[in-house]
User: Fold these one by one.
Assistant:
Number 1:
Amino acid sequence: MTIPIAVVGGTGTFGRRIVQELLESPLPFRIRVGGRTIARFDDLFAEDIPDLEFQAVDLDDPSTLPGFLDGQKIVILAAGPFQAMQPHLARQAARLGVHYIDLADDPGYVQKMIALAPELERSGKQFLIGLGSLPGLSLRLADSIWHRFDRVDEISIGLFIGNKNRRGPGSVRSALEGLARPVPLIRGGVEQPSRAREFKRRFDFPDPIGPVSSFLIDSPDRLLFPASFNVNRLEARVGFEGTWARRGFALFKQIADWGGLGLVLRALPALLALASADPGGTDRGCVSVMLKGELDGGGLTLRASLYADKQGQRLASLPAVIAAEALAAGESLPAPPAAPLNWMATPVFLERMSLHGIDHRIDPVGPHFTS
C-alpha cells in the first residue's frame, strides 16, 4: 500500500531534492507536488513517473489547501521565503489530521509556529519545524557533543555553501532582507543586537574546507537552542565558497546600512545570474557547531560537523526526508508537538544521515572559533 505524502514547493531548490529522495526511498511513497503552476514540474519530471503527481496550490490562498491536502498522510513545506509566510498550511493540516514538516529558517515564522502549538497539539499529529540545515542539523550536532563538557560557555554555528550549489530566489531574498537589521545574538544568556564589527569573521570549518570568511545570520537557533541547552553565548554564520558571493554579501550589507536595501532586492535576478556565473568552486556543503567550555578544570573546544563532499544542498533536505520516513513507518515518536530535538534520538538521526552518505565528524579545535 502506498503512503500519500505532499511536498509544497517540490519544484524549488530544496523541495525537488526532497522529492527525489522520497522517490528513491525504500518506502512506497505516493508523492503529490504542490506549486502555483505546472510548467516547472513538467520541466523537472519530464518522464512519466508512477506515484508522482502535480496539484496546484497557493499558500497565500487558504481556500486551495483543503483540496491539496485531501487524502494525504504527511505534508512537507519546502517553499519559501518563510519570513513572508503565514502558517495557513500548518493550521489546515491540523484540521485534516495530516502530519506537518517544514524547513523553516526564519525566526519570525518559527515564533508563529510556537505560538500555535496548543492549537496544533489538539490534532494528535506531529508538527516538526525547522528541519533544514539550521536548526535541523545544528541542534543535533550540539547534542552530539554537549555531554563531553562540564560547562559550555559559547556556541558558534557555521553553514558553508559551495559555489556550485544552486541559489534559490527565496533563500537569497531572505538572506538579503536580513542585512537591513542587526542580527540578534545571545550574550550573557539574553538576546542582544549585534555590533557592526561582528558581522564578518572567520569560521573554521573542517578539512577540506578550512577557515572561511563568514557572515552573521539570524536563524531560529537563537529561539530553539535555549529550550534544550543552557545557552550563555550563541551566534550563527554563513560562509560562501565563491569569491563573488563573499564580496557581494559584504557589499550588500554596506548598501543596506546606507538604506539601499530596496535597490538590492530589485536587482535580485541580476544578482542570481552573477552568482551563477562564478565558474570556480564545488558543490560541497557543511554545517558545523563549535562548543567552547570547560572539562575537568581546563578549557575545551570541540567542533561537530555534518559534511557532504558532493550535492551539499542535500544537508537541508535530508532531515525532512528522515522525519517523513519515520512517520510513514509508524515509528514511535513523542506525543505531539515533539520538540525539534526530541522527535528522534540524536544517535539514530546521525546514523540515518550517514546512511545517506553524509559524513559526521567530531574533532577538537584551537582555543577560539573566530578571529
Note: The first helix runs from residue 15 to 24.
Number 2:
Amino acid sequence: MASNKSSIRYAKALLELAIEKNCVESIEKDLSQFLRTLKDSNDLRIFIDSPVVRNEKKIKVFDLVFPDFNPMTIQFFRLVTKNGREHLLDDIAKQFDQLLKTKRGIVTGTLTSARPLDDKLKAAILDKIKGSFEGTLELNETVNESLIGGFIVRIGDKQLDRSVQSTLSKLKQNLVK
C-alpha cells in the first residue's frame, strides 16, 4: 500500500511538472515506451529491481537504453533512482497514465464476456451504461469463457454483472435456501 501511495505522489508531481513545462505528450510517450520495454525485457525489470546494482549504474543504463527520451523524463528517472525508489518506476508510469486520463475526462473500465463481442453489441452495452458515469469511456475487453454467456462491466469500483454464470449462481442460492 505504501508503495502505491508513493507511486501516486511521484506520478502527480511528474504530471504537474509536465503541465508546467508544456511537455505532457512527450512524457506520456516516454513512459508508454518505458512500460513496453519493461514488458518485453524481463532482464531490464530484474536489473532495475535489483538491490545489488548501484544506483549510478542504473542511471547510466537508463541513459543508454532510452537515449531519445525527453530530458525531463530521464531527470525524473535519475531522481527516483537516487531516492532508492526505482522499483516503483513501472507503477509510477501506470499511475501517471491513469492521472492523465482522469485529467482528460477519460473513464477506464473492463468489459468481460464469454466470447468476443461484435461492434453492434458493444455499442448497445455502452449505450445502456453511459449514463452512469461522466466522461469518455475507454473499455478494455477480455474474454472469460466460464461466464457461459452475457457480460460483466467494471468501471472503477462499480460492477454490472449480466453473466449467465452469475444468474445461475443466484438461482442456486435461492434453491438452497
Note: DSSP finds eight helices and four strands in the chain.
